[in-house]
Specification:
Alpha-Beta Plaits, Rossmann fold, Glucose Oxidase, domain 1, 4 domains, 7-stranded parallel β-sheet, 7-stranded mixed β-sheet, 13 helices, serine-type endopeptidase activity
Length: about 600
């Protein structure tokens, strides 16, 4: 996508003319055009054959042609844990001038979290609008728009910004929800639910439906959000895998947002713990991993001999101590579906024999969402994941009961959870990703009363708040934090806000020695890094080495390194950086405020 054309320019007319030149007729071009992006950048989305795509690719002035890819969706305590007081130094009037735009599944406007009591009219700069049936904006939700380029609606979908999946309602209230007393999930996590900046405004751009989310809609939402006047964009959506930046709609849209002074905060993805799995890793995006807070929800499994095991579980059901037969998933393979023991032991969807599982608790090897057990009419599950430490159970007996969940203090918090996608950056190895981590485990936030509170779509219980986990939950925490900084410093650039968030964590780093000097290529220097802070039980010391070789330095340690490029004012952290061969023989590494830097 190119820059917005200045002056007397009609994007729609220009794009239509380009389509006519390839498709041959005005009517065909009109039917083909899905979106004309011209408010904030220049480009369009259209229905084209492979042959027509090839013709466009060869046209002068066309930067790139990309497919309409499908993308995926990636509290009462979390903001307190982060050190965000309910009444911060930034007052409500300043917060009210900040607008957070969210690209998500929509929003449930009647939620108590979106009450606009005490809020005045939106800022005068605002250009957005409310769209769709069965939806009313207020002074809290000041924009609601929906997009569906594929026209692919589920029977339960309504053409409205209203949220029927509740992902968007949850993320919106996490970032900027109003304070709601007495919030809980069936008694768990009871307290006052609030967002990071309760006084901020919300603009919802609904791009995700039950059928999914597509590139063209993402770009259309960015085009509108930039033109409408949002201050922060929050996106808990991303690709599985990775694409070059010029083919990634989130990278493209966020780049134009950055050029217009808007920071984009995006989730890192849920494909951990595997390396190179991080999503939304463009340098100008604030990429957010998921970590824990000092509260965890647990439940006990009581076996037939009375022995009890405690595991992580958000359980609102009470079995009243009733012992229920226990079966291993590997003994309940759905042979008719082609599943064997190696598959059914993981309790994958459709892999279990309902005749064997019905009315039983199923022991599953691996972390699953429970949908496979529900399909086979099981009443509960015990998950044991031997690969990671997030879940751990063993069982020697054939009957068990699962007790109602309870809340424990997690003294080890915070730590990055296993599902959170990991770096290094698969496109730009020079750029360290994710950028920051934020609470993304067991987050309580607003929920639609008409949506099921569990993975069971037939779950008829109604809740106003729900507890869920993923990097989708951590992203709005940083979006709220960024909005808070923006409220305090309205003139700060996206880079300044991002830098403030990345360099003010409550840990300190000491590097010894403070300077490493290199005189010859191939020389090796040793260093140590000590990390300490109020929430770190120990003070770990990490040793490492840096080798200057053929104009590169190689870091063999989890060390943050800043590169300062000549003639620029932009810094970015990375594990390693490919350098030009130095003009002089001498070079040095040094650190400032706990951050190691290379300067040349």
């Amino acid at each position: 996508m190119g820059d917005k054309i200045q002056g007397d320019f009609s994007a729609a007319s220009s794009h239509h003319s380009m389509l006519v030149s390839v498709l041959g007729s005005a009517s065909t071009a009109k039917d083909s055009l899905l979106y004309s992006y011209g408010k904030s950048f220049n480009g369009f989305a259209a229905k084209l054959t492979d042959e027509e795509v090839e013709k466009f690719s060869e046209m002068e002035g066309v930067i790139s042609v990309l497919a309409n890819h499908r993308l995926n969706l990636h509290t009462t305590r979390s903001w307190d844990f982060m050190g965000f007081p309910s009444k911060g130094k930034v007052g409500s009037p300043q917060e009210g001038d900040v607008i957070i735009g969210l690209l998500d599944t929509g929003i449930w406007p009647e939620s108590d979290s979106f009450n606009d009591e005490g809020l005045g009219s939106p800022p005068s700069k605002w250009k957005g609008k409310c769209q769709g049936a069965n939806f009313t904006c207020n002074n809290k939700i000041i924009e609601a728009h929906y997009y569906n380029s594929e026209g692919d609606h589920d029977i339960t979908d309504i053409k409205s910004p209203r949220d029927f999946e509740d992902h968007g309602t949850h993320t919106s209230s996490t970032a900027a929800g109003w304070e709601v007393d007495g919030a809980s999930y069936f008694g768990l996590a009871e307290g006052t639910a609030r967002g990071g900046v309760p006084g901020a405004r919300i603009a919802m751009y609904k791009v995700y439906w039950l059928s999914g989310c597509y590139s063209a809609d993402i770009l259309a939402a960015f085009d509108d959000a930039i033109a409408d006047g949002v201050d922060i964009i929050s996106v808990s959506i991303g690709f599985d895998g990775f694409s070059p930046y010029f083919e990634d709609p989130l990278a493209i849209g966020s780049f134009h947002a950055m050029k217009n002074g808007i920071l984009t905060s995006a989730s890192a993805g849920n494909s951990g713990p595997f390396p190179f799995s991080v999503a939304n890793h463009a340098p100008w995006i604030l990429t957010v991993a998921a970590s824990t807070i000092d509260r965890k929800f647990v439940a006990q499994v009581v076996l037939g001999n009375g022995q009890a095991f405690t595991g992580l579980f958000v359980n609102s059901f009470n079995l009243n101590g009733t012992s229920i037969p226990l079966i291993w998933g590997g003994d309940a393979a759905n042979d008719s579906a082609g599943a064997d023991s190696d598959i059914s032991r993981g309790c994958f969807y459709g892999a279990l024999n309902s005749y064997k599982v019905q009315g039983k608790i199923v022991f599953c090897e691996g972390a699953v969402n429970g949908a496979g057990i529900l399909l086979a009419n099981g009443v509960g599950t015990i998950m044991a994941d031997s690969s990671f430490t997030d879940f751990a159970f063993s069982f020697p007996f054939l009957i068990a009961t699962i007790l109602v969940g309870e809340t424990w203090k997690d003294v080890m918090a915070p730590y990055v959870v296993s599902f959170s996608s990991k770096g290094p950056n698969p496109i730009a190895l020079d750029i360290l990703k994710p950028d920051v981590t934020a609470p993304g485990v067991d987050i309580l936030a607003a929920w639609s009363p008409v949506a099921p509170p569990s993975v069971d779509q037939d779950d008829t219980r109604s809740v106003k708040f729900n507890i869920i986990s993923k990097t989708s939950m951590s992203c709005p925490h940083t979006s709220g934090a960024a909005a808070y900084v923006k409220a305090a410093h309205p003139n700060w650039s996206p880079a300044a806000i991002k830098s403030a968030l990345m360099t003010t964590a409550s840990i300190n780093v000491t590097v010894v020695p403070s300077v490493l000097s290199f005189s010859v290529i191939g020389e090796k220097k040793l260093f140590s890094v000590q990390v300490y802070g109020p929430k770190i039980a120990q003070q770990p010391i990490i040793s490492g080495a840096i080798i200057w070789k053929y104009g590169h330095y190689v870091v063999r340690s989890p060390l943050v390194v800043y590169n300062i490029l000549p003639g620029t004012q932009y810094e970015y952290p990375s594990f390693s950086m490919s350098q030009k061969k130095p003009d002089s023989i001498g070079s040095s590494m040094h650190h400032k405020n706990g951050i190691v830097k290379h300067k040349y």
